[in-house]
Amino acid sequence: MAIIIEPFRIKSVEPIHFTTFEQRKQILADSFYNLFLIKSDDVLIDLLTDSGTGAMSSKQWASIMLGDESYAGSPSYYKFESVMKKITGFKHIIPTHQGRAAEKIIYSILGGKGKYFVSNTFFDTTRGNIEYTGAEAYDFLTEEGKIPHVEAPFKGNIDLPSLEKFILEKGPENIPLCVMTITNNSGGGQPVSMQNMKETAVLCKKYGILFFLDACRFAENACFIKMREPSYESKSILEIAQECFQLAVGGTMSAKKDALVNIGGWLALNDNELAQQARNMLIMTEGFPTYGGLAGRDLEAMAQGLIESMDEDYLKYRLRSIEYMGEKLTAVGIPIIRPTGGHALYIDAKAFLSHIPSHHLPGVALVNELYLLGGIRGVEIGSLMFGKYDDNKAPIAPPMELVRLAIPRRVYTQTHIDYVIEKIIEVYENRRNLRGYEIIYESPLLRHFTARLKPI
């Protein structure tokens, strides 16, 4: 495949702080071997997340100067609302300071003990907000999505037969909401097909269950649909996105992903009564409905970012850059989720470190070694993030043990990526010398953010 260059020029730069191996060894120990607890100044290449870590464009920075900071009725809100309605078609557009704030609102209203929420795969904060209400969250990822080495175009799809069986077992009256995460982050950044979304929408309507989109990476998902579903190859990214949103009755988004901003999010709804309840809670927790915890300048940047996120040259470059990483690693036998997703490369830590059992956290061992050798920060998506305990306090492992290297948007060049590839290969060659970790402190919810660990 021909080289695809970055579809942008760099106008501003910031220095990277270099550390030594010995310094990083001490930093890891001081941070209890949890990369979330490391200062970002001590990271050389930061791939912990693509959330809020992207570089804004000159047009976005220019938009910031237009921000109107009126408490109520700001024109910056109405600009944001206009862009959102064009893309999503949703009736009620409610800004929040980030995605988890939108989740907090909707699940506080719909959740509670005895309720079940279903998805292709819930991400960590979504699951945390659901479980905090006393409700339960269940994933129904397609079977091929659970096998990292299997090549399939839409491994983020929901398993509809299993979902319908669950609905009948629990009763549709106990399932307020079905959420389609696009792309499927915890499932390897894998896309969801338009066909699967359509079929899920029909199933939800059949049983009277609300169908929502977790739209953090809607533009990347639309690009995959354009590339992999033949009937959409001649449609624009905007047209595909509009069709996706029209299937749902609402959705949430952390705009820190595909909207290309450093802060922001939204909750969008069609139901008048639900929207009123959401706005009432928004006022209590976030702010007035026309700013929702954001400054007017953030709303301006978010509106511009939503437009830029659907640029096809940018999307092709972004997806290709992840694919490039995957090709280099696969060529030397390193196990990854294939095909590569849209925002991150996912290493199969279970296969990479096959001698470390799940309860000894192979993903943690891998991310810590990457930091130690190269100053690279990734994130474990496995037994630390999603593991649970049975009634006897024995650990229950999730289906996959992954390490996610999320690529910030418009931040790193190919040279940075080549360095990351080089260090992954170096760790792989030394993998038999790695050992696992155990947890010495954990919080009751979202434990991976603050857990303290020690090497075994």
What does this structure look like?
By secondary structure, the chain is of the alpha/beta class. It has two domains: 21-50 and 312-455, Aspartate Aminotransferase, domain 1, CATH 3.90.1150; 58-308, Aspartate Aminotransferase, domain 2, CATH 3.40.640. 40% of the residues lie in helices and 14% in strands. It has 16 helices and 16 strands. It has helices spanning 21-30, 58-64, 75-88, 99-110, 124-132, 160-170, 194-207, 218-228, 237-246, 272-285, 296-308, 312-330, 349-352, 362-374, 383-386, 414-429, and strands at residues 45-46, 92-96, 116-119, 136-139, 177-181, 210-214, 250-254, 265-269, 344-348, 376-377, 379-381, 388-389, 395-396, 402-406, 437-441, 452-455. The strands form five sheets. Strands 2-8-7-6-5-3-4 form a seven-stranded mixed sheet, sandwiched between helices. The chain has a three-stranded antiparallel sheet with strand order 9-14-11. A two-stranded parallel sheet has the order 1-10. β5, α7 (194-207) and β6 form a beta-alpha-beta unit. α8 (218-228) crosses α9 (237-246). The chain is globular and about 60 Å long. The model has no long low-confidence stretch (mean pLDDT 95).
